[in-house]
Amino acid sequence: MKRLTAPLFGLIALALPLAAALTYLWVGPAFAQEPHEATVAASATHANMAMLGAAISAGLASLGAAYAVAVVGSSAVGALTEKPELLGRLLILVGLAEGIAIYGLIVAVLILNTV
């Protein structure tokens, strides 16, 4: 089986924080207005959507980072068996793969600041 899923999974991992940020922009104006009795139920729905967007952002970005670290980590171990002096460079690559989860967490925190 070819690794056709790696680019697709990477695109999904990068697109989901963007989708969560768009959800934040969609939900944010609802909290900027004065709450009226008619909009109390709507703001509860917006709060639920914000929490759902934050959960999707953090969760799927973490899954994307886990997959990226698995692929990069296994390749790094293979490279280290041949050239042990590449350890520092390969640790940087694994750290960059882990950055995807940090981006998702940052977007989730930004979304939750509106609630």
Descriptive notes:
- This protein has 115 residues and is mainly α.
- The chain has one domain (8-29, 47-112): Up-down Bundle (F1FO ATP Synthase).
- 84% of the residues lie in helices and 0% in strands.
- It has helices spanning 5-32, 40-82, 87-112.
- Helix 1 (5-32) packs parallel to helix 3.
Task: Summarize the helices and strands and which ones pair or pack.
Elements: H1 5-32, H2 40-82, H3 87-112
Subcellular location: Membrane
Domain V-ATPase proteolipid subunit C-like: 52-111
Membrane topology: Multi-pass membrane protein
Rg value = 19 Å
For this structure, the CATH topology is F1FO ATP Synthase
Distance between the termini: 44 Å
Structural class: mainly alpha
How many DSSP E strands?
Answer: 0
Question: How many domain modules?
Answer: 1
Low-confidence stretches: none
Order of helical and strand elements: HHH
Beta-strand residue fraction:
under 5%
How many strands, what sense, and barrel or not for the largest sheet? none
**Mean pLDDT over the residues:** 78
Question: Which architecture does the CATH hierarchy give at level 2?
Answer: Up-down Bundle
CATH class descriptor? Mainly Alpha
Count of individual helical segments: 3
Helix content: over 70%
Question: What would the principal axes of the Cα set say about the shape?
Answer: elongated
